[in-house]
Amino acid sequence: MAKLNFFLGLCIGLSMTVIIQVFDITSTFKDFYLRNINPEAWKPHGLSCQPDSQGDPRLRKIEDDLIHMRLQNTDDGEFHQDNDVIAKQLFKTVRIACWILTSPQNLEKKAIHVKNTWTKRCNVVVFISSQKNDSFPTVGVNAKEGRQHLTAKSMQAFKYLYDHHLGDADWFLKADDDTYVIMENLRYFLSGEDPNKPLYFGQRFRPFLKQGYASGGAGYVISKEALTRYGRRGFDNASVCRNASGHEDVEMGRCLQNLGVVLKPSLDALNRTRFHCLTPETYIGNHLPASIAKVYDVENGRAGAENMSDYAISFHYVSPSKMYDLEFFIYHLRPYGILNMPQKLNLAA
């Protein structure tokens, strides 16, 4: 019995030593981070360490700093043996200019994370704001901030692309600063379409217009011919493209419809969705609001993983931290021993 007690005591003692050491290491790292990496946030008195940091601006500052640092440790391309020949070829043959709708107050809160992640895969990237910023950089257009001015910003953004980048791309993508786009999947989808025809694509909504319109949050992409018609006959013609205070995606849809630009379906060959106006978890968990499912969405709000394309293109309301989560899951995480072969999911032309 004495030996058993001794053995149990030894195990408990060793366990406590390990726990204390782990706690000490964790505390030391936290203290090191606060003191050295972000000394402004180090306040030894009253600093809350609860997981929910919404009530403590110092912890929110720490989280923001960590978000900025996340990509520094994800450059593991030297270990990947991915065959990206097809993606590289499509980068050359399906050229996409991306413009991001943002604002001065969102540059460091949202836009920087879009810049650090998916827009690196665009052929051309332009951030549109109400103020020019040479260091970010952004293009400043003559429009005020606020939802009622989004149409004016978008109208001027497309005019800027027409004036400065018409020859640099075949397709022109509009996205918000909380939209995440998988550019390789967008290029594959567009590879079967003709940019010299007046076309545009996105998540189709049904109200207000005869052909419907594409959700602004999910992102929508217009062809070179569509942009050419807009630049030549739409921008300066209020009877065709009214620079109104209505919903940006509706008014752009009205403008494109008046110009004879066709909003085509974007479902894959298995009738699954590619553009998504809400977060991935909302669609995967089938939690679409009734207004989306029954009133707006042409596809009647079909959600669930079984209704989402393997080559999904976009998601909306993606937080800065989830931008990096998606980068990891899409471009870094790999199941060992499973080769990802290309699928033919485009509809026949």
Automatic annotation (TrEMBL):
Its EC number(s) = 2.4.1.122
Could you tell me what this protein does? Glycosyltransferase that generates the core 1 O-glycan Gal-beta1-3GalNAc-alpha1-Ser/Thr (T antigen), which is a precursor for many extended O-glycans in glycoproteins.
The way it spans or sits in the membrane comes to: Single-pass type II membrane protein
Fringe-like glycosyltransferase domain location, by residue?
111-265
Q: Transmembrane region positions?
A: 6-25
Q: Which InterPro entries match?
A: C1GALT1/C1GALT1_chp1 (IPR026050), Fringe-like_glycosylTrfase (IPR003378)
Q: What is the lineage of its organism?
A: Eukaryota, Metazoa, Spiralia, Lophotrochozoa, Mollusca
Q: Which organism is it from?
A: Lymnaea stagnalis
What cofactor(s) does the depicted protein rely on?
Mn(2+)
Regarding protein family, the annotation reads:
Belongs to the glycosyltransferase 31 family. Beta3-Gal-T subfamily.
Q: How does it assemble?
A: Homodimer; disulfide-linked.
Record bears the keyword Translocase: no
Keywords attached to this entry: Disulfide bond, Glycoprotein, Glycosyltransferase, Manganese, Membrane, Metal-binding, Nucleotide-binding, Signal-anchor, Transferase, Transmembrane, Transmembrane helix
Where in or outside the cell it occurs: the entry states: Membrane
- Pathway membership of this protein? Protein modification; protein glycosylation
Any one GO molecular function term = glycoprotein-N-acetylgalactosamine 3-beta-galactosyltransferase activity
Q: What is this protein called?
A: Glycoprotein-N-acetylgalactosamine 3-beta-galactosyltransferase 1
Q: Where is it found, in Gene Ontology cellular component terms?
A: membrane
